[in-house]
Amino acid sequence: MIFYAVSLAVTRSPQSICTTTQTEDAFYSVYPAVDPSQLISNQAFQGKRVIVTGASRGIGEDIAVTFARAGASVVLVARTESQLDAVESRILEHVQMRSLESCSGRDDPAKVEVAVTRAVERFGGVDVLVAVAGTARGITVAFSQTDPYDWWNTLEINLRGVFNVVRYALPHLEHMVASSQ
Question: Are 177 and 1 spatial neighbours (Cβ–Cβ below 8 Å)?
């Protein structure tokens, strides 16, 4: 069973990442342990079915692009489906043809269940789940100045989002493991 709670594979150049980040003093480097080029050139995930939450931007977007470039069929999940159009376009810039599915959901268990069900119906199963959707809204000021409702909302989004997607994807991941033995 493959389950990634967080992955740090970065496909953008350090310059392009720095132009999209708020932190000017951030340091980005690709070193062998996190360099995705071998996975891409070897098509290491050819035939694998991958669900990526938080795929509309940031780490989730880069992970989705990397898996697609490495041969995987990718299900892009984000809160707002319209934001995924740009990610699909970015993937299609790198790959001539790739199976893609986009859907919204994260906080709503019913939407997450639909997203996982659509992935299984379209691709025949799930091999990899990458649950990176989250937020840090309300955590940008000193703790004593943090709005309690923003803090609770952040906690709820970050915990419920991961729980929901794992809850509905895990039976399919376990099925894939059992059928491969």
Answer: yes
pLDDT at 3: 33
Average confidence score pLDDT of the chain:
77
- In this prediction, residue 8 carries a pLDDT of 31
72 touches 128 (CB < 8 A)? yes
64-171-123 Cα angle (round to 5): 45
Domains belonging to the chain, first-starting first, are 2-180 (3.40.50.720)
- Is residue 48 within 8 A of residue 68, CB to CB? The reply is no
| pLDDT tens per residue, range 105-158 | 556 888 888 888 988 988 899 999 999 888 877 677 888 888 888 888 888 888
Question: What 3-state DSSP class applies to 1?
Answer: coil
Task: State the residue for tokens 């100045």.
Answer: 145
How many residues comprise the chain? 181
Q: Coil, strand, or helix at residue 51?
A: strand
